[in-house]
Amino acid sequence: MLDHRTETFMAVCSVMNYREAAELLHITQPAVTQHIQFLEKEYGCRLFLYENRKLIKTPAAQMLEDYLRSVQQRENFLREKIKNNGLRELRIGATKTIGDYVITDRIHDFLNQPDTALTLIVDNTKHLLHLLEQNTLDYAIIEGFFDKNRFGSQLYRREPFVGICPKDHPFAGREVSVEEILKETLIHRENGSGTLAILEEKLLEHNESLERFHRHICISSFKMIIDLIKSGYGISFVYEVLAKSDPDLGIFTLKGEPIVREFNVIYLKHADVREKMEWFL
């Protein structure tokens, strides 16, 4: 259980404003200041600084926040075990490719066991990382980039990243150049998605960007993207497991070294989620 001073610190980290933290905790602003000063004396470092009148966290504050969030997660798990009397309750996240096309069998296996409860949130990488930081999730299975200084991880599997097009498109079954794909309409996911980040990274290697495509369309739904691809509206890039899920899609690759990315299980750096990972993985 966090004491009142560390709870104050966590509130300041959440809102990054002493006055708002005081209102959130129903205490005075001087009390917030005193709690932070106590912790700074206890740890022998500054936790917050002002830059251009904006409150910022020091590296020490970031380390303390990450540690305290993991402590809170462990306490939440203990409370669940005491309260639920044997019920195994799991709160996990998954990026859209993984949630919709990869872990369905594992979900069935988990829910077929007695005394289990599941909350699964399928969203983009950026939002799942935020939910982890807020202790809303026990862990997440993602294909995007994450900060290894803040999150622990375990490799789930590796997956090729490929292009998709209509089955009768000239690209189908071929290896094509970046110059060729720029002449097409690109249909891609929204900012914050792992697949878009990978594509932008690949384009950057060739000094290119989304704006260089003949046209690009942003859609957050894989189902709609696939429907548009099959109807001839453009091309897209997805993981192979999704590309092979529909026999009416053509698959192509980019010239050069194959693009293969990791699917990782990620969790707060100091959290102990081994038991909950064993339940599902």
UniProtKB/TrEMBL annotation:
InterPro entries: LysR_HTH_N, LysR_subst-bd, WH-like_DNA-bd_sf, WH_DNA-bd_sf. PANTHER family: HTH-TYPE TRANSCRIPTIONAL REGULATOR (PTHR30126), HTH-TYPE TRANSCRIPTIONAL REGULATOR GLTR (PTHR30126:SF40). The keyword Transcription applies. It holds the Pfam family HTH_1. Belongs to the LysR transcriptional regulatory family. Keywords: DNA-binding, Transcription, Transcription regulation. It comes from Blautia wexlerae. PROSITE patterns: HTH_LYSR. One of its GO terms (molecular function) is DNA-binding transcription factor activity. Transmembrane segments: none annotated. Gene3D superfamilies: Periplasmic binding protein-like II, Winged helix-like DNA-binding domain superfamily/Winged helix DNA-binding domain. This is CysJI operon transcriptional activator. Residues 1-58 form the HTH lysR-type domain. It comes from the Bacteria.
